[in-house]
Amino acid sequence: MLVRVLLACALALCAALASADDFGVTPPAAPVERWGTLEVALAGPSDGNPFVDVELSAVFRQGARSIAATGFYDGDGHYKIRFMPDAVGQWTYETRSNRPALHGKQGSFTVVQPAPGNHGPVAVRNKFHFGYGDGTPFWQVGTTSYAWIHQGDALQEQTLRTLAGAPFNKIRMAIFPNNDDKAGTLRFPFAGTPPRNWDLERFDVAFWRNLDKRVAQLRALGIEADLILFHPYDKGKWGFDRLPAAANDRYLRYAVARLAAYRNVWWSMANEFDFVTEKRMDDWDHYFQLVQAADPYDHLRSIHNAFRLYNHTKPWVTHVSIQHGAATLDPERAVLYRDVYEKPVVYDEVKYEGDFTRRWGQLTPEEMVLRFWNGAIAGSYVGHGEAYQDPQGMVWLAKGGTLRGKSPARLAFFRKILSDSPLEGLEPIDKWQDHPFAGKHGEYYLGYFNRERPTNWPFVLFKTGLADGMNFRAEVIDTWNMTVTPVPGTFEIKKRDDYTYADKDGRGIALPGRPYMALRIVRVR
Amino acid sequence: MLVRVLLACALALCAALASADDFGVTPPAAPVERWGTLEVALAGPSDGNPFVDVELSAVFRQGARSIAATGFYDGDGHYKIRFMPDAVGQWTYETRSNRPALHGKQGSFTVVQPAPGNHGPVAVRNKFHFGYGDGTPFWQVGTTSYAWIHQGDALQEQTLRTLAGAPFNKIRMAIFPNNDDKAGTLRFPFAGTPPRNWDLERFDVAFWRNLDKRVAQLRALGIEADLILFHPYDKGKWGFDRLPAAANDRYLRYAVARLAAYRNVWWSMANEFDFVTEKRMDDWDHYFQLVQAADPYDHLRSIHNAFRLYNHTKPWVTHVSIQHGAATLDPERAVLYRDVYEKPVVYDEVKYEGDFTRRWGQLTPEEMVLRFWNGAIAGSYVGHGEAYQDPQGMVWLAKGGTLRGKSPARLAFFRKILSDSPLEGLEPIDKWQDHPFAGKHGEYYLGYFNRERPTNWPFVLFKTGLADGMNFRAEVIDTWNMTVTPVPGTFEIKKRDDYTYADKDGRGIALPGRPYMALRIVRVR
């Protein structure tokens, strides 16, 4: 199975690298895939400051439906409007601008069925879960590499190759550099010269073209790009954590205009928002609202905390992005946020596998994997990170490069188990008591024993959806050694008490007395 | 210590019972205590339907301040306006009414210092905690007896005697009866005849006078009355869970007009609100807003859940009232709601001590007490309940009467430990990791080992507020056997690593290898 995943990824990488230089967009002259990216390119004025002087958008129409998308200036008199069509068939467009050269341009294009691997954008589904546009479940197995696009080109390419062979289908990544990134030959979102001599009314299109390209390459790999719009790791070095309000708004509008038409984009307003010293809570509300209004596709939106939680009940938050060091240590703990927010919960940061001296970066691989399982049993999702010390500072968490940890192989195995689970998502079976099972009542049960070392599990299931005479098969899963061992025979249940059904003959399942064991129990008809 | 508490309670009970028949109110002719209840009594029309026809209020003034309080009809041509003054000195009032006999009545009265035991109303303090009006901390140790005021008079009196000797300073109690309460000689909030022949435009003042009296008696005992305004246990029998909207609003306004001037009142919009089948989420929002607008004193407001949580981030919620079967099983779990809501969290229902067959009513006393400790270490508060089977159905949880469990004595001990804690409230010391300590950085640490049975605790404290050379004394607390054992000598600390300070000589504290042990560590200067 793992080999198959790796092969599929390798093939996807070839496709990604082959299309790297065109930013993964399609001109109207060629058919564009459903949920692909159409790009209307126009020539226009280069005098003055086109970034602020020129307004450009287009209305895209199919039958009675119309969707407005904002364009952007790409330098040298080039203007672009990108669009992600959500339906096959014929579409037309007409541009609008405050400049005659860009106004009233019309065209049409054809949208065709998506190619294999293009499942559409990810959205919230079944309240607590995610699904692609085509109905395929999205089982989030994320990783984090904050500044991988701020490294040299060769290292960025290496990161992509690593991701191609890794189990992750989402990566958290920042648009602004960290304060320890080296200026060198790097480009920055704003025009000007580092460290702080920026023209805040002009963007460096070379930087943004590279970001387009990287997002398109992730898309080709089937990886969602969870774009972190602000973060506190600048600490004033480049000043991007303390821009004037007008510059922040221009930056957000430019990012959305360039990137929203990539189906794999998610918007993360910040990493550790509460550590950003120069912004207040209502600034974050404003950024959410601005991005929501600017994005025609309603991509997923969240914000990631350090110690203080954002109020994720606010309507513009689509899902909950949590950093917490202890919340995924058992499923009953992890489920609490879900109950509060009634939205999907992603534990994007649960400490990292590694050997750092800081306690957030010294999880054993076993402890990293354990958190994914606990999150899943709580009906939520978890993110990976890696922080092994390196003489050159080549740490995955920050710069990308290669993965050295032992958790990714186990997370590939974990993802395979997830992807064989009910399409509706894993739901806690009985969150009222300590009961480490998730699944679908009466059909499917996934249990996880965490650090416990049981030698036997009495076959007892919570009552909902059960009836006397139902039959189940079971498998013992070793989540660390990556084995799935069928239990011989089947189990017929009968009512035991007010709350449970048990095997009618009182049988149980033998377990090996090791930690990190799981059980999968599936109805047989 | 326990004897002293019992004595104080017994004395308070005498006072309570002595003043029982006058509903604990004071006429303007006599001096009224600060935070006592002044009652202006007026004679007025008894024709028509005074409950709905007559509007009555008064403005109470002291210097430049004025507070408006709504009056109510108490039957037989008697009208009353109750007022809780919050400052000593001279006050005046003037009534307003749509009936001439009640309009423009003026008077003055004197407010004197509160008597011992009157600390004022409880409000939120230090974001996560509670305090009385006079600055005394309120360490919530609650209990629950839903329908105690719907039992016979002798049983109500017995319940009060039990409370007088119990450790509880808050009781959750419903205004509407349960469906298994017996009509018999009981009175109901609305006029009419049971089970469902109510005049929804008239109240049964005899019922409300009894409620006034009981609330006043609780006040004399130093017990907050957490009044549950709606609940699902009617199930249509009396119909109070499915009144027309206008009747609900009249009921709420009448309850607030009669009871808000008792300083010990809290408003709980519901018990298990999500089990009330005939109300929608925006009904609950409306009740909150109505009560908030009607109550001149801004008494505490919350709502209690079964499986679905109300959005406690809404601005009219003053504190969080939670039912959860598993959230208080460790402090790291219990702290999560606190982080979300940034308000005091009261785990009002964590299952009950008892021997019921239903799993919510079969906690051992040890498990009941454990939940209070875990809640405290999480910087939150917990509620007690008792559900021992009884041939006559005399269950504390529902009917009151006597307590049979073994937890109350331990909760008296627990409350004593709490009341010796820093006035600011217990704050989690390091919620980022599993670290079962609360207190005040650099000054006071209360640790709790839950079900663990440690034989030694290495003297290691989280860094915040610490410096080399500080000295601490320690006590070993057996929370079940109710002993406090000083550890000989003191501990001098020095920095151990990035996160902790430890005893400079590497010493630890011997523990007896039993469960339910705690540690108290206090700075020595």
From TrEMBL, chains A, B:
Residues 128-384 form the Apiosidase-like catalytic domain. Keywords: Signal. The keyword Signal applies. The keyword Transcription does not apply. InterPro entries: Apiosidase-like_cat_dom, DUF5060, DUF5605, GH, Ig-like_fold. Residues 434-521 form the DUF5605 domain. Residues 1-20 form the signal peptide. Residues 32-98 form the DUF5060 domain. PANTHER family: DUF4038 DOMAIN-CONTAINING PROTEIN, LMO1036 PROTEIN. This is DUF5060 domain-containing protein.
